[in-house]
Amino acid sequence: MTTPNAPSPSQKGIDIRDALSILSTRAKDGGNDQQRDASSVSDEMKRMGQTIDISGDDVAASSPAVDEKEEERHEAMKRERERRAEEIRSQLKSMGVVDLLGMIFRAQHERVATYKLFEEGLSTILASGNISNYPTLCAKVTASFSVLSDTINTVKTSFITNDDTQQQQPNRRDIANFISQLQKSEGEKLNLTAALHLERLRLRNSQLEKEMSLSDDRSGSASADRTVALLKDGIRTLEQKIGSVVEKINEVLEELRCVAADESEE
Question: What distance in Å separates the CA atoms of residue 74 and residue 68, rounded to the nearest whole number?
């Protein structure tokens, strides 16, 4: 069975190669676009995440041919992000454990809301077959995820500082370790979600091809049935894996809630 290269609007097909390209590009970029659409993220998270580059990676490095002016511009932006990051870290020093954990919980709440938007957007695309809307959807949600992840990573650093001048905030590597586990699981969830989206796009295409084969002749019906069944099995497997990861995320969040409760009692 072959996937049509350019499905007609009446077929409402989705070019899987386009979808795969979009997903792989977004995964490679990691949401580190200089022009981010993070409108779904709260102002507090925007002020933090959009001005902090925890990894220290220069986005310009992803472009193979950057002229001298462009390189200088990116270096200037990187220095500005580092300056603002230091300002924010300084602000975090005056915050207590409970307040810092509150930021983690708010970021997680917004992550859940962003996933909901992601799923709703995909459902709309599957219904319409309009793949041209998928890049905008991916750009928006990955920008939001990037801002939220930067915020959480910044909070984590405030628990593990070894600088003697920053001891207003006690060294809590136990909390930092929980946050690292949270971030690792969230990364797994996002990768699995991207894979799930691709399988759902493929399933939609296969179902449309099956409908077309039935209208022409029944020679390809059995093959189409097998393909659809395999894709449905793959989707169920991915959904189960995502469910397991969500359980791990909830377990870590419960540990952090217990920490916050203990700190509140002291």
Answer: 10
